[in-house]
Amino acid sequence: MDSVAILNSLNMKLALDPKNSKILVVGLGYTGVSVAHYLQKLGFKFAITDSRDRPPLMDEFLQSMLDTPVFTGGFDEAAFKVATHLVVSPGVTLTEKSIVKAIANGVKVISDIDLFACSVNEPVIAITGSNGKSTVTTMLGEMAASTGIKVGVGGNLGTPALDLLEQDAELYVLELSSFQLERTSVLNATAATVLNISADHLDRHVDMSEYGQSKQHVFSGNGVMVINADDPIVDAMRETGRSKVTFSIKEKADFCLAHKGDIEYMMHQSQCLMPLSDLPLEGRHNVSNALAAMALGKVVGLDEQVMCSALKKFKGLDHRMQRVAEIGGVTWVNDSKATNIGACIAALEGYDRKVILIAGGDAKGADMNELAPIIKEKAKHVVLIGKDAALIKQSLDSSVSVYSAENMAQVVKICAEITELGDCVLLSPACASIDQYKNYQDRGNQFSKAVLDLLK
User: Fold this and answer.
1) How confident is the model at residue 443 (pLDDT cuts 50, 70, 90)?
2) Can 381 be counted among the known catalytic residues?
3) Do 398 and 449 fall within a single domain?
């Protein structure tokens, strides 16, 4: 769309126009900066506010936008009073006092996703969920690229949505968080999905109901709803009169699993797409992710065989259920990104066999007792590391064999000694890494290095 068409769309859908609108961008992070560049190009008057004294991107921002008013070190009441619209970054809660007061005074809250939705005519695929959204977004982006389509991939993952507009893509694939969706009103994706719903971000959302409702906003509009038939909360989001495509790893659906003789296949209705054994990802939850990606791609016309070829090459995201190696019949998996209990539970639930679990680190005050039931069900042995290892051990109450280690080299050495043919070793810590490592990437890299050292 050219700038005239975009301005007309913004005016019609969001009552935004350069002459009369006064926009306050709340939050000077990557999203806020992308919003500022977008508004500047279209000639809008705007200011920025951030509660931090010195936001990390501030110096770079000021160099490129010297004339833009910036208020830091708290939210300036005067800036909120003159605003007609607030563009609130996902990292800022809508329960912030200044925002609540502004809304009560008639100020309209919009999101960067609203601005994006007013600026494209191309198909948009919108993906959200408690787990797996980054994997599905990346997977689908690679599928689309394999077909030769110019695709823009981003949103909550990687490139901010508004920055994708510079790519002149033929298709956009967006990962969207509950925080983005709760403040989005005009999104009308060609295809959209909520992959799953489980307890998350309840420090920001009042309860699970509100959290689910924010995710459900992804289905706004009249596009195709891609429904996970295995998740009762998502399944209940079906809307009468809407086009729907379903996926399931448990039952018959538009995209599902079926055995043909001794081989289990990924299916599109009655058509065999590819043997499940060709999918190079760990965990049944990643099978669900792959089916979701296939379903979304089918809606926008991607060739099924090309999508299958892309899936066969897809190695997963770094540190997210990433298969490091298979050594002597033992599979080693790096899920260092599992920095909380929920992520570890999702990883363990993806296996239909018992694994050797590596866990521990900084629990950030979480109740490790919540992890105990799934470990007892899914873990053959547990190797613990880090500051709060004792909390996990205590929660297990001697119900599973537990080993302790001081560093990742020692962890891998212990695992190598206790594994048997056919075992899987899973690093899924359920804790942050800051007690011993720079970040979860550093932790995962050290694990991978120690595993690969076994080959030397």
Assistant:
1) very high
2) no
3) yes
